[in-house]
Specification:
The chain is mainly beta. The chain has four domains: about 160 residues, Immunoglobulin-like (Sandwich), CATH 2.60.40.10; about 290 residues, Coagulation Factor XIII, Chain A, domain 2, CATH 3.90.260.10; about 110 residues, Immunoglobulin-like (Sandwich); about 90 residues, Immunoglobulins (Immunoglobulin-like, Sandwich), CATH 2.60.40.10. Strands 1, 2, 3, 4, 5, 6, 7, 8, 9, 10 and 11 form an eleven-stranded mixed β-sheet that branches. β25 and β26 form a beta hairpin. α4 packs across α6. Its EC number is 2.3.2.13. It is found in: Cytoplasm; Secreted.
């Protein structure tokens, strides 16, 4: 007796006073569905074989067959049926005898998760009718032949996305007969940017091909004066990536019933992409030491990261902003949400969201690193996802900012967005989610403030144009760059810009007015700073130019400070100090050169070869201070990639990667990575060292499977040199 009680206890759901069934978070878990559901007592002699029986179900799930072709899912490296919601797809059912509509009754059932419920959209029974209604669940017979019927099935344009289990149920007088659990008939349903009723509908075919179907992209980095680009493999169609992306929603504990809503999916994904507070996908590291992990600059794409996380369930080390954004883009495109990767140059990381970046100067006009807490990132990458915003007033749909890089908490977790780009442009930062933070990233002013001995703050200089001065993304259909700054802000100094700022302040963005501080700048002298194009390992020169527009002679005591910085603008070490007195003649310009020697910077150089120069000059006659700061990136040599022989689908070929060490030192612990989305899974090779001026050559044999234009992407990583990339477009011929 006691034994039977305990087993029946185990099968009961865990008791919970608040809800009848436990939360339904997992797309992977299943319930047991009975093959025979009896209506009462079965008479003797009842034989299920006397009734209509399902012999086979054919899903038309091959890449070249109708479903994957019409639903733009033929590129997914996945044997199961993948369709997009709100659009009809076809299946064929083979019965044990010809189907007779007058006497036979059957229906389809799509189930998801362990506790399927009709009102939650996780149990969907579909009766066969005479016509399909757009964007609503339904099925109709389009062909009958012998024992087979072919059905056209329409899914709802708002249904939840993920992996459904399919059953066919047949009604008999004594109960329901169901097909056995068969994973071969599992059906993935994704968002549909081709369907007008879907929240992610995008009306331009070229944009859909770019923002949903392109599996390679470009990351723009460097700085505003020296934009650099590199390719990134999104790989959203590669094997197991779709399952890994669905697992992320399980990990984020997003209820299955909420998974039809792109706003909810983006919000939870922006938290689970980073490992802060939820053991998400990528652990960030900005300190230049990457023990027990991969340096952020070494990754060539998202696939390795997502698959490693999917198998280990542990955060993958390490990432920085473009890695978080690259993986987030893969996630969005994989599920069918149009997405693009954005770079904001001179991005404000404003610790108290007051639209004011404070750089404190000491008595002599040098930057006080103790007091200065805000930092300007050379660049920062985030994503935009395309969707309607029924939760906001009309006009705020379209591109939404989502950011997976952990910077600040939002509702208690490290996440950001979705925030409407339109709302940010017009200053309507009251609309959810996190619009004030993004507004500050692109609109802050830099204040150079001197602390007097008695504690008063004197504002010496205000730079209103540097932050967010260039916002870019990859062009549609090509590798070029598109300037989208005007989608985020009106032109500096225009009436509309002022109005947007006043609106943002009205909605609670903190902005200290200049009246609160004493500020009388020196207006009759300009100071400018230029740096020569500099190659890693070489000397280069920088030039400071003064223009005295007045009729007075001035002398300027000038301080020059060269710092090696992380790309986040945080200094590692000051490697050069120089001060001089400049005589400024009336109505004339004077220039002063300073030489930066490679021996001064090589020892401490960080991976993005990034410098930050501060110049402050005190006009002795007036006591006023001029200040200018500039980021300079060194030119890092590229990898060379070439192919050997002809490239034909299904035929072995080889690719050669070469690199010549340009430094006056040996490179230690060299690792090369090579990948070609849709052509070549990532291969890594370790090389011990490359002596100075010597060339490393690596040949890789592989067999491309599909014809078409593809891209090879390679990266080199070593102890002293990182951020070395190479890429090559290749045309694979048909056999």
């Amino acid at each position: 007796m006691s034994e039977t009680t305990s087993t029946s206890e185990e099968n009961k759901l865990p008791l919970n006073g608040r809800r009848a069934i436990p939360p339904n978070y997992s797309n992977d878990e299943e319930n047991e569905v009975p093959e025979m559901e009896v209506f009462g007592s079965i008479p003797r002699g009842f034989n299920p074989r006397d009734y209509l029986r399902v012999v086979d179900i054919y899903m038309f799930k091959e890449p070249q067959e109708i479903n994957k072709q019409e639903h733009h899912t033929d590129k997914y490296y996945n044997p199961k049926l993948i369709v997009r919601r709100g659009q009809a797809f076809q299946i064929q059912i083979d019965f044990s005898r010809p189907y007779q509509p007058q006497s036979d009754q059957f229906w389809l059932e799509f189930l998801m998760g362990r506790y399927p419920q009709q009102n939650k959209g996780t149990y969907i029974p579909i009766l066969v009718g005479s016509a399909l209604k757009p964007g609503q669940w339904g099925a109709k017979i389009i062909h009958r032949e012998n024992n087979s019927i072919r059905l056209s099935i329409m899914s709802s344009a708002t249904c939840i996305i993920g992996k459904f289990r399919l059953y066919v149920a047949v009604l008999t007088p004594y109960g329901v007969l169901r097909t056995r659990r068969n994973s071969a008939t599992d059906t993935y349903i994704l968002f549909n940017p081709w369907c007008q009723l879907d929240a992610v509908y995008l009306d331009d075919e070229k944009e859909r091909e770019e923002y949903v179907l392109n599996d390679v992209g470009i990351v723009f980095h460097g700085n505003v004066e020296d934009v650099k680009s590199r390719s990134w493999s999104y790989g959203q169609f590669e094997e197991n990536v779709l399952d890994a992306c669905l697992f992320l929603m399980d990990k984020a504990e997003l209820e299955l019933s909420g998974r039809g809503n792109p706003i909810k999916i983006c919000r939870v994904a922006s938290a689970v992409i980073n490992s802060r507070d939820d053991d998400g996908v990528i652990a960030g590291s900005w300190n230049n030491s990457y023990d027990y992990g991969v340096a952020p600059s070494a990754w060539t794409g998202s696939v390795d990261i997502l698959l490693e996380y999917y198998s280990s369930k542990q955060p993958v080390r390490y990432g920085q902003c473009w890695v978080f954004a690259g993986v987030f883009n893969t996630f969005l495109r994989c599920l069918g949400i149009p997405a693009r990767l954005i770079t904001n140059y001179s991005s404000a990381h404003d610790n108290n969201a007051n639209l004011r970046m404070d750089f404190f100067l000491d008595d002599e006009g040098k930057v006080d690193t103790r007091l200065t807490k805000d930092s300007v990132w050379n660049y920062h990458c985030w994503n935009e996802a395309w969707m309607t915003r029924p939760d906001l007033p009309v006009g705020f749909g379209g591109w939404q900012v989502v950011d997976g890089t952990p910077q600040e908490t939002s509702d208690g977790m490290y996440r950001c967005g979705p925030a409407s780009v339109q709302a940010i442009k017009h200053g309507h930062v009251c609309f959810q989610f996190d619009a004030p933070f993004v507004y500050a990233e692109v609109n802050s002013d830099i204040f150079y403030t001197r602390m007097e001995k008695n504690g008063t703050q004197v504002v010496e200089n205000i730079d209103t144009t540097r932050i967010g001065q260039l916002i870019v993304t990859k062009e549609v259909g090509g590798d070029g760059m598109v300037d989208i700054t005007e989608e985020y802000k009106f032109r500096e100094g225009s009436d509309e810009e002022r109005l947007a700022l006043e609106t943002a302040v009205m909605y609670g963005v903190k902005k200290q007015s200049i009246q609160d501080t004493t500020y009388q700048p020196q207006t009759d002298v300009d100071m400018d700073f230029q740096a020569q194009k500099a190659v890693l390992g070489n000397d280069f020169k920088v030039t400071i130019t003064f223009r005295n527009k007045s009729r007075n002679s001035y002398t300027a005591t000038t301080y020059f400070s060269g710092n090696i910085v992380f790309y986040t603008g945080v200094p590692k070490r000051e490697f050069k100090k120089h001060s001089f007195s400049a005589k400024l003649e009336p109505s004339s310009s004077s220039s002063f050169d300073i030489v930066i020697k490679s021996s001064e910077y090589m020892r401490d150089l960080l991976e993005q070869a990034s410098f930050h120069f501060f110049v402050t000059a005190r006009i002795n006659e007036t006591g006023k201070i001029l200040a200018v700061q500039k980021a300079v990136m060194l030119e890092i040599p590229a990898l060379r990639i070439k192919t050997k022989g002809e490239l034909v689908a299904g035929k072995e070929t080889s690719v050669i990667v070469e690199f010549t060490n340009p430094l006056k030192q040996t490179l230690e612990n060299v690792t090369l990575r090579l990948e070609g989305p849709g052509m070549l899974r990532t291969i890594k090779k370790q090389f011990g060292r490359i002596p100075m001026n010597s060339t490393l050559t690596w040949e890789v044999k592989f067999t491309p499977m599909r014809a078409g234009l593809r891209k090879l992407i390679a990266s080199l990583n070593s102890d002293t040199l990182r951020h070395v990339y190479g890429e090559l477009n290749v045309q694979i011929q048909k056999p």
